[in-house]
Fold this protein.
Amino acid sequence: MCRATRADEISVRDIVEHFLDRSALLEPALRAWVTIDRSGARLAADRLDITPRARRGPLHGLPIGVKDLVDVAGQPTAAGFAPYAARVAASDATMVERTRAAGGIILGKTVTTQFAYMDPPVTVNPWSAYATPGGSSSGSAAAVSAGMVPAAIGSQTGGSVLRPAAYCGVVGIKPTYGRISRHGILPLAWSLDHPGWICRTVEDAALLLGAVAGEDPRDPESARVPCDEYLAGLPSGDRPNLVVLDDVAALARDAARASFEGCVDTLRRAGAAVSRGRFASGAELVMSVHAVIMQSEVAAVHRDTFAAHKEDYAERLRAYIETGALIAASDYARAYRLRARIARETESLLAPGAVLALPTVSGPAPGRDTTGDPTFQAIFSLLGIPSISIPSGLVDGRPVGLQLAGRHFGEASLLSVAAWCEREIPPIGPPPLGGILAA
């Protein structure tokens, strides 16, 4: 699409009108959007249509959804929280600013669960009217899956980019902690928050990451490590080296585990080298350490707002904050020490060129009274290493994903392996939207 608009094969305005029409058709059933900025998107499209080719960026004319946790100048950042409904952003978040600079067009704000926690959203999974799209990047995943927008910004503290991507049958990428600036994004847990992308292909993920990655002095956690050319090696001609995390895969439900093992076998027969590994400290400890750190930090982040607006908090988030406030500082400090130990153990699993492989989710999307199980994805939010989910099959008619993770700042090699796997795994096709519209 970006190539076509850069070459004047199709106008940006026509692209924008297509996605606006698609959203108007599907939004009443899916409820993926908080707001759609029709006039702003059209104005941006008209400006881009008269931009000389030499000045067109890598995302030229690409419509983008923005999770309603991320600031877009002139629009509210409500985060699903009633007291913030009129909280209008004065400027763009860095990720939005860089998206616009690369030629992207902000189509609107997508639904998030309240403050990116686990209280269920209003959004419907495009694959089933009775299933959750996952959280907290619920609207972003549903909108991309349903073809309402080609790509959308998400964020992940537990599993909120990769899980909804897997449940909705699309691609989600969470890069290394600090690879994308968090400036202008409401925090949930300081040391775990990762901005990311939800899109349709690994190539799209590489393109989008390249447009926004890099140091930002406005984010003190922003990394100074130089960025690679993420599109350059897609896919590599080398056969990938996959290390299957057996202790995590064993926790998946039977059908999802069988689907994952079938996917691994497909990749092995296509030429991938497959070995087996496990966390030396055990997967359960990894998940427990994430839970202690996240709950403590969420309680700290929300302390003042919670004191002033307790009754406006959703039920599960309210309970989570109240419990997190009871965690002792000594337990938080011990969890931090264990985190460092687990990070060293993980590095030992990642020989040069190897990536970790495991199911993205423990099963297909459950009912709409939940956002699903975040534990499989939360491992890499804890460790801060890059991870990506690609569609790997259907279980009970709903998508599941293959999750891959690599070394810190190893996004280029991770994307190359993901593109190789994407090429070898049979596609799952589009969601059956006829049933959603009839429901």
In short: The chain has a mean pLDDT of 96.
